[in-house]
Each structure stands twice: as structure tokens, then as C-alpha cells.
């Protein structure tokens, strides 16, 4: 994401906070994870404008919410709150 690339993932960890729902592949027994992921990948492979748009959105998300300064402030706040 920080390189401005599109990302396809399953719903793990912070993924739902990082990428848009349409690029999250569900992991349910009734869902075909590989098939759904291949469809999403095919969309990105065949549409350069979509690929650029999603990549740019990802890059903006990282710069807006996940810089080292922001992460450091969040850690500082966590530590300060834990000692109070």
C-alpha cells in the first residue's frame, strides 16, 4: 500500500481498517476464496485505470493515517494511558 499498489486480502488483523471492502475476500466454507481472489485480481490486471485508482487510494490512506509519526503518537498515548 505504501508503494501505491492495490491490495487484495482476507479479513485479518487491521485489513478492514486499511482497504476497501470490495478488495477483501471472505473466508467462509461456502465461499470459494481462490476463485473470488482470482476474479478481483483479474479486474485489476485488465483495467489499468482501476489499478492506478486503487493504488493511489491505498497510498493516500497510508500517508493520511499510518505514518511513523502517527504510529509513534498512538504508541505514546497508549503508554501514557496505561500508567495513569
UniProtKB/TrEMBL annotation:
<protein>
    <recommendedName>
        <fullName>Glycosyl transferase family 1 domain-containing protein</fullName>
    </recommendedName>
</protein>
Amino acid at each position: 500500500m505504501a508503494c501505491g499498489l492495490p491490495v487484495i486480502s482476507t479479513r485479518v488483523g487491521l485489513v478492514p481498517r486499511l482497504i476497501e471492502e470490495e478488495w477483501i475476500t471472505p473466508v467462509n466454507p461456502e465461499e470459494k476464496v481462490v476463485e473470488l481472489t482470482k476474479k478481483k485480481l483479474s479486474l485489476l490486471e485488465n483495467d489499468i485505470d482501476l489499478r492506478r485508482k486503487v493504488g493511489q487510494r491505498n497510498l493516500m490512506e497510508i500517508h493520511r493515517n499510518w505514518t511513523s509519526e502517527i504510529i509513534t503518537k498512538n504508541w505514546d498515548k497508549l503508554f501514557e494511558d496505561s500508567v495513569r
